[in-house]
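Quiz preparation item.
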């Protein structure tokens, strides 16, 4: 789950990190009022779950409240990476002497949180990693002890020469690590961490991504979810208990079980196709889940063929068949569908499908090949 910048900065602030004042507005008038309250120049910042807002025109400096209102008028309602901006954060402008990057990520390879810092901040850290990897320092943290003071100092010296700034940055990194752990994060970053001309060190931007598996035991964090600014298909899938990840291909996949879903996507690629999504309808699929799954898949205009791949165990093939018949009875399919079912109640499922005018296959290779071919023919 992604947090908005204004939510992430509140968590950083709660951990003791110096963050400039700021407030959120949903209308240009609110943005103007906030700017007036702060007096002087402000920055108006789009609140969307996307990086690179600055480059996309979603971060604008205003010299006064009237200009803040004008910027808010432009930024509110704009789309950045397919997401509509519903809110802006208004913060007093900071004077920047230097911009660095500080982040914590959960690193699967080393199986621990890794602190990543760079004196080349403000820009995409991926770009720094690709062009000047020497400007990034990484340090694995033992989760039993957390980020130790001497480790934080070592990272601080990679960013700054002045001891007071090294100390300030070290304190911020330890607080950032704590905020990351407390939020159940998979990522927490400050980009840029700035120094001001008078030597203060401040967090000017904040990003936290929370591991969904941590939400059940963190109701306070879970309450921060803003479904209005998430991908509608992913929201719908989550609410129906489906595991869905949107991809860019043309073969819409509906599968039971994560392992089989992965194998299906592999096979789609093996036969020259591209999956449009990962979708696991789960173990005990009732027909209603299948209906929602089909609605999600067919709402994607890129989908040129639909592939059902069901291995009936706990999942009953007849439940899936009933779901397909119900869904296609409500709205007629505009693209061809290939159904492969095998296992529990397979014979019954085939009867249900045939009565509704569908045919079903039992061989996975054959089904995948056919779906790829149909999708290719439509393209
Ligand atoms: P991002 O593009 O989504 O990462 O948004 P940021 O909040 O990081 O802002 C992008 C860039 O805008 C920063 O790296 C700064 O260079 C600039 N910026 C943001 N806030 C301020 C500010 O208060 N003062 C100044 N001078 N520049 C700012
Ligand atoms: Mn940033």
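Solution:
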């Amino acid at each position: 789950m992604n947090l908005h910048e204004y939510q992430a900065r509140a968590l950083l602030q709660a951990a003791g990190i110096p963050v400039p004042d700021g407030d959120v507005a949903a209308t240009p008038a609110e943005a103007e009022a906030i700017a007036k309250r702060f007096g002087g120049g402000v920055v108006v910042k789009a609140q969307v779950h996307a990086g690179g807002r600055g480059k996309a025109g979603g971060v604008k400096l205003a010299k006064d409240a009237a200009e803040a209102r004008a910027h808010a008028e432009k930024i509110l309602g704009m789309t950045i990476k397919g997401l509509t901006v519903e809110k802006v954060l208004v913060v007093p402008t900071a004077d920047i002497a230097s911009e660095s990057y500080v982040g914590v990520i959960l690193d699967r390879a080393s199986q621990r949180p890794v602190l990543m810092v760079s004196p080349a901040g403000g820009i995409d850290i991926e770009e720094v990693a690709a062009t000047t990897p020497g400007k990034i320092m990484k340090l694995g943290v033992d989760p039993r002890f957390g980020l130790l003071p001497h480790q934080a100092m070592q990272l601080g010296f990679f960013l700054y020469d002045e001891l007071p700034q090294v100390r300030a940055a070290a304190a911020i990194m330890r607080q950032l690590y704590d905020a990351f752990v407390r939020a159940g994060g998979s990522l927490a970053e400050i980009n840029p961490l700035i120094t001001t001309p008078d030597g203060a060190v401040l967090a000017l931007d904040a990003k936290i991504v929370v591991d969904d598996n941590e939400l059940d035991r963190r109701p306070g964090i879970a309450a921060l979810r803003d479904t209005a600014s998430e991908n509608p298909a992913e929201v719908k899938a989550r609410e129906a208990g489906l595991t869905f990840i949107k991809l860019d291909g043309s073969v819409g996949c509906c599968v039971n079980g994560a392992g089989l879903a992965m194998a299906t996507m592999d096979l789609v690629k093996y036969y020259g196709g591209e999956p449009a999504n990962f979708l696991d309808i789960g173990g005990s699929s009732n027909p209603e889940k299948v209906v929602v799954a089909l609605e999600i898949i067919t709402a994607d205009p890129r989908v040129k063929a639909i592939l059902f791949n069901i291995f009936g165990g706990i999942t009953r093939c007849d439940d899936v068949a009933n779901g397909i018949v119900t869904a296609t009875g409500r709205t007629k399919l505009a693209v061809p569908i290939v159904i492969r079912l095998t296992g529990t109640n397979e014979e019954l499922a085939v009867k249900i499908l045939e009565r509704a005018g569908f045919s079903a296959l039992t061989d996975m290779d054959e089904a995948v090949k056919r779906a790829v071919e149909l999708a290719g023919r439509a393209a």
